[in-house]
Amino acid sequence: MPAYARTAALAGLTTAMIAVLTGAAPSVPRPGGAAPVAPSDPAPVEADGFRSVRTYTVVARPVRLRIRALHVDSALQRLGLQRDGTVEVPARPEVAGWYEHGPRPGQPGPAVILGHVDSRSGPGVFAQLSTVRPGTLIAVDRADGSTVTFRVTGVSQTSKTAFPTDLVYAPTLDATLRLVTCGGSFDRARGSYRDNVIVFADHV
Amino acid sequence: MRTRQAGRRRHLFPLLCAGLAVALPAGPAPLRPAAPAPPSAHGPDHPVAAAATAPSAADLAVRFQALLGQHSVLAADLMRSRIRGDDAFAQAANAALGGNTDAMTSLVGQLFGAATADKFRPMWSDHIVALVAYAGAVAERDTRAKGRARAELVEDEQQLGRFFAGASHGRLPPKVARAAVVMHVNHLTGQADAYAAADYTTADRLYREGYQHTYGLGLTLADALLPAADRATLRAPVWRLRSQLGEVLAEHAVLLEDVNRAAVANTADFDAAGDTINANTRDLAAAIDTLFGASTARRFQSLWASHVELLVEYAAATAAGKPDRRHRAQAELRTFEHDMAAVLAPATGGRVPAADLSAALQEHDRMLLEHADAYAARDYRGAQDLAGRTYEHMFALARGLADGFGATVAARLPHGGAQTGYGGLAGVTEHR
């Protein structure tokens, strides 16, 4: 233990005891009230040239999704909300889409990409999504030529009536990716699958 | 010999811990904190000790993160003051670090049980003493002492790694636990080495990375040590956002105090400190972009940048002995507080009124100006006290903003599931 630390600690203890015994709070000057310290060095004040930054890195929008393990290589359509408040889905079964009111892939927050499991007559871009395994890599190409990579952490299948909006879309500052498609049994009366398959992936 | 040294270090540590407490409030965080009370590590006013109702495990876990992050910056500040031979500052930093350890031990007890807390304190204390010894060796350019301190740190890393792994009942592998502690120690020793070599860019990069890593370590530990239900809560978006906004906003306070310390003292590390607060400002703007889009983020950053510049201007004017510039900066901050509240209040959907936000920002600015004044007056104990309260205050503000922002964003999220199938593979998908 350095001698300085013992001295400092004892002095601190003494000061603390005096404060406790006397009930005195540490004296803190009001802002603007303290006399400015006269500069001991005539050299220019280092802080005089300080400027705060007024820009931040803007992540480019995603344009392509690639999952080698599933043989997925698709352009990305931009998706918004429908009038009933549900999410838009891609216009074509073989093309995936990015929910543009949420974060861009690689930006802090959960980016969401949706794709069809099938068409009326055959497979869609996410036909094999429910078979993806944790650890699988997902690449998203962006409009500025950059690529961001994610690693699958989990897959879940849930009823559409109990869709976990919070876990898929709710804001955090973790740069994550969610892939969404349909799964489970098909309700022929409604012309719709009863479940959604959701893949969760973290930024690598 | 390890046993004898460890015993001596444990004997000395209570002295290091004596002084004022720097702890986070235990109850739900008010947006507008009450008038500050005289700090006390052990009395009934201590915010952790005075908790009337038991906070949730997630609440405690986020505060554990906050205290770990605070430990990192306080330890770095102490090591730096030791290196520059500033004994008065080192004394104040010692006391603040002791208060942080008290608060952390108390939280460990609440989160993981008294037996775990009893084991935690002496190990954590040894770790701090070894860090101080390392800084002393760096200051004195004593290679042999540095080697001894390094050996102590390695032993502490192994001990802490085993302790956390054991407490997790196998959920946290010993190698992972030790690696996390090693990284924490490397950040602190690395920033000390760089600071001593006047490589302030590296020193401040490691200072910031150290804060972020140690803050994240709190989540890693809580995630490993808490019961399954609490772990799930911690991963829920609302808790992630509370934790993350708290991290970046409290870091703003820490880095602003650091840049103003350099401004007031007019030291050569000012530029590096300025770059570091700028990096935090970028992260804040990026967070606002995530939540509300680029337009709001640009507006936010423009105002926030003015806020940072005015606070630094106040400190620079103090260094230059220009009271008129100080008063002007102080007056212009009132405009910032009003304008920023007008931007943020709608983002909370009115859940946090603009008047309350403005008052909270005014309180934030007041404490930072007082911090600069205290530092200029070489009242380091007062400065550390203010730093601790500013840190607490930013967490309280972040909590209110996170909940308001989260609710606003949640209201516009898509409803229900996605209709992403037409039945062509119905016979296949049904059997997966």
How are the elements arranged and paired?
The complex is a heterodimer of chains A (204) and B (432).
Chain A: H1 3-22, E1 62-67, E2 72-79, E3 96-99, E4 109-114, E5 137-142, E6 147-159, H2 165-169, E7 175-187, E8 192-203
Parallel strand pairs in A: 2-3, 4-7
Antiparallel strand pairs in A: 1-2, 1-5, 3-4, 5-6, 6-8, 7-8
Chain B: H1 2-17, H2 57-83, H3 87-112, H4 114-139, H5 143-167, H6 174-196, H7 200-225, H8 228-235, H9 237-265, H10 270-292, H11 294-320, H12 323-347, H13 354-376, H14 380-410, H15 426-429
Helix pairs in contact in B: 1-3, 1-4, 2-3, 2-4, 2-6, 2-7, 2-8, 2-9, 3-4, 3-14, 4-5, 4-6, 5-6, 6-7, 7-8, 7-10, 9-10, 9-11, 9-13, 9-14, 10-11, 11-12, 11-13, 12-13, 13-14
**Computed Rg of chain A:** 28 Å
- Separate helix tally of chain B: 15
Largest sheet of chain B: none
- Euclidean distance between termini CA atoms of chain A: 43 Å
Q: Give the uncertain stretches of chain B in residue-range form.
A: 1-52
CATH top level class name of the domain at 62-203 in chain A: Mainly Beta
Largest interface: A-B, 104 and 113 residues
State mean pLDDT of chain A (0 to 100 scale).
84
> How many beta-strand runs of chain B?
0
Helix/strand order of chain A: HEEEEEEHEE
**How many E strands of chain A?**
8
Word description of this protein:
The complex is a heterodimer of chains A (204) and B (432). Chain A has an eight-stranded mixed β-barrel with strand order 1-2-3-4-7-8-6-5. Chain A is mostly beta strands. The radius of gyration of chain A is 28 Å and the shape is elongated. The two termini of chain A are 43 Å apart. In chain A, 12% of the residues lie in helices and 33% in strands. Chain B has two domains: 56-235; 237-405. Chain B has helices spanning 2-17, 57-83, 87-112, 114-139, 143-167, 174-196, 200-225, 228-235, 237-265, 270-292, 294-320, 323-347, 354-376, 380-410, 426-429. Chain B starts with a helix and ends with a helix. In chain B, 60% of the residues are buried. The model of chain B is unreliable at 1-52 (pLDDT under 50). Chains A and B meet through helix 1, helix 2, strand 7 and strand 8 of A and helix 1, helix 3, helix 4, helix 9 and helix 10 of B.
